[in-house]
Write a structure and sequence with these properties.
5-stranded mixed barrel, alpha/beta, 275 residues, Rossmann fold
Length: 275
Amino acid sequence: MTPGSSLEAARGVLEARLPRPPRVHLVLGSGLGKIAEQMEESVAVSFGELPGLPAATVAGHAGRFLFGELAGVDVMVQSGRLHLYEGWDEATVAAPVRLARALGAEILLVTNAAGGIRSGLEPGSLVLIRDHLNFQLRSPLVGPVFPGEVRFPDMTEAYDPHLRELASRVAGEQGVVLTPGVYAGVLGPSFETPAEIDFLARIGADVVGMSTVPEVLAARAGGMRCLGISLVTNLAAGLSPEKLSHREVMETGDRSAAVLQRLVLGILAALEGRE
């Protein structure tokens, strides 16, 4: 999505169909699409219907936006995402976030499926992202400054501390274990080698995945507040005798969707003071 052109065209298409602008942009990772089923009076738009956005290609990623209410909050739900490993450039991967901001979204709530690195993070564990490591070594901020963004965004608190505090409080009230951790974003699409996982563990990574970082970079450059939650769907390479597979990621996502769904709805309700 080039600065200004495709964004404005896509924004125009959506504004003509939406009753109200979204406050929160909620991104659903692999196997987590069931959260969208809780939306009220939603308007669905496929990625491919919008200028500058290609259709999603990865299993478990529906590739559409849903606009409506969740827990009383106007949301833009992104069911599925675009990844760098699919061959899309950084601007295309970040386009949904930039579009959400253009429509009025102030908060990015991003979820993802991730491999557990730190001891004790078993499949089904939820991790509250407190920081990330960019081992994709690419950024959607390279090139001309996108309209509404700054050249050098401060990433000291990329994941908003107040939103993290709110999420932790809601998790405690629900009896959900939500462990703070560092997310390592890698390019993929292969799963990591045991040696790579050993390296990531040594430098402080708790979970690893192939998304999220470009979205958060674009969101922060545009002044959006970010909250990230990883669902551990498998133990990282070398930490389990089982071979890694995308099928395992999907199956764990299906089994754990209810807990994450309840947590996300609770967080949204807390944003509106409706706990």
